[in-house]
Amino acid sequence: MDKEWMCKDRLSLEYEIGIESFLQFAMSNSNDPNAIPCPCARCGNLKKKNVQTIRAHLIYNGIDLTYHTWIWHGERSMTVNSMNGTDGFGQDEDASFAEEPIDMVHVVYDSYAENPSQFNKLLEDAEKSLYPGCTKFTKLSAIVKLFNLKEKYGWSDNSFTDLLSLFREMLSDDNELPSSLYDAKKILRALGMEYVKIHACPNDCILYRKEYEDLANCPTCGTSRWKLSNKSKVKEGVPAKVLWYFPPIPRFQIMFRDKTVSKELTWHSDNRIRDGYLRHPADAPSWKLVDCMWPDFASETRNLRLAISIDGINPHSLMSFRIVVGQF
Predict the structure, then answer these.
(1) Across-strand partners of 88?
(2) What is the per-residue pLDDT across 7-31, written as a single tens digit (0 to 9) for each?
């Protein structure tokens, strides 16, 4: 019995030492010591606390057992090369990013089985330096990086085209950067990022597809499908409103062809902690309801379930409140 208590005391001491080591690491990498993500089993890095509160939480709640790499507190995450399956540590951001377009190209290889010349052109863009002597960016990686920034900061199409033109002037004359948004989109479309334009009612009643595809007026509100000129004349063939639809299935196919991503497809079934807490959507009642209603679907652990989570959306700034929606 004495040995059992001695063992518990030793484990408790080691855990307390581990807590202090973690807190010192977190504080050294935090801009605000009063707002550090708490990694306890209840907070799961979703709530920010001060050091004293985090220490108390870790003692009473324990640490999130899945939190092995302290990525929310300054530690670099482990990167994996999807081409050879070997693990790598400490790769700088530019180097790891430069490899990603090559991975993206190889992932879509099967889509070009009947058109190898087009695949070779895509591979060439992924390997070609942005300008002679450039080692950090290829033609494709530069476009992908700029598009990520465009979406992140909400740049307009016109501003993005102007930015590309300016960059082309700044770089050497033999650079490979496209000069317009249209040219950049053509390159990215080869990666399977295609979209479909669908005409829509200006009042959002219907989409002009399937049985409504050939209509000229909305069957619900009677509004013309076509745009009106300044003199209220209908511009036949020019839609008043267009929905840009991005088909999800081709994106799923590309995503899960990458073995570093596909192995996560069954994580909720193979590696999820089941301790009664809501740690994953699979712990939610809505997920379990789907399992109950469609057992055949649920029996395949590689099944895909789409989730919508919208927080703080105010369309066109027309509302005096924010829309907060969550749905599985």
Answers:
(1) 79
(2) 445 457 788 888 888 898 888 888 8
Using CB atoms within 10 Å of the CB of residue 144, give its burial: 0 to 12 exposed, 13 to 18 middle, 19+ buried.
buried
φ, ψ of residue 242 to 5 degrees: the values are -130, 135
The answer to whether residue 90 scores a pLDDT higher than 70 is no
Beta strands at 87-88 and 79-80: parallel, antiparallel or unpaired: antiparallel
- Whole-angstrom distance, CA of residue 218 vs CA of residue 223: 5
Give the pLDDT score at 201.
92
| Secondary structure string (H, E, C) spanning the chain | CHHHHHHHHHHHHHHHHHHHHHHHHHHHCCCCCCCEECCECCCCCCCEECHHHHHHHHHHCCECCCCCCCHHHCCCCCEECCCCCCEECCCCHHHHHHHHHHHHHHHCHHHHCCCHHHHHHHHHHHHCECCCCCCCCEHHHHHHHHHHHHHHHCCCHHHHHHHHHHHHHHCCCCCCCCCCHHHHHHHHHCCCCCCEEEEECCCCCCECCHHHCCCCECCCCCCECEEECCCCCEEEEEECCEEEECCHHHHHHHHHHCHHHHHHHHHHHHCCCCCCCCCCHHHCHHHHHHHHHCHHHHHCCCCCCCCEEEEEECHHHCCCCCEEEEEC
Q: If you compute the radius of gyration of the chain from its CA atoms, what whole number of angstroms results?
A: 26
Query: Is residue 202 classed exposed, middle or buried when 0-12, 13-18 and 19+ CB atoms within 10 A define those classes?
Result: middle
- Ranges of each domain in the chain: 2-73, 87-189, 196-245, 272-328
Q: Once rounded to an integer, what is the mean pLDDT over residues 189-199?
A: 75
Distance of alpha carbon 15 from alpha carbon 155, whole angstroms: 48
